[in-house]
Structure prediction request, 172 residues.
Amino acid sequence: MTVRILLITLFLFGIGFIAYNQSDSSWLYRVSLEDDPTATGYVNAEGDTIVPIGKYTACFADTIKTYGAVYDPERKAFIGINNKDEFLFEIFFFDNGPDYVVEGLFRIVEDGKIGYANEAGEIVIVPKYSCAHPFMDGKAEVTFSCTTEKREEHSLWKSNEWFFIDKQGNKL
Prediction:
């Protein structure tokens, strides 16, 4: 009986180890210069440089599994890149950095419109809203028409046409 349990455990561990190594091979790992830890880039598991150190002003993730947030000085924006250093989308600027993930989604921007992407780096709601708040309790308040009012160092969105959407973009 104990030999059988041991064999099953070893078999399951082996499958988990193989699956981990397969998914791990496409991940990128943040690296930095020894004398300047703020100068960062990404390498793959083999140590090949995928994102050269200094290409982006800031790299926010230690590990890129499917997407990572970086600051691109050429675009002057926070962007999402995949594990091949390909541009995915611009990330909404919030609180001096890329938008926070809330309930598995964060805001992205395209041509001045706001939409949402998930933690896998997939666009789940195409950017089409003029103003859009983060999700809370499974819904987000959005509008197609709004104005921005400056209040000291902060801004406030104003609209008479706010409505809620679910995580698939359906109007509630």
Notes: Residues 92-172 form one domain. The chain has two domains: 28-91, 92-172. The chain has a mean pLDDT of 87. The two ends are 56 Å apart (CA to CA).
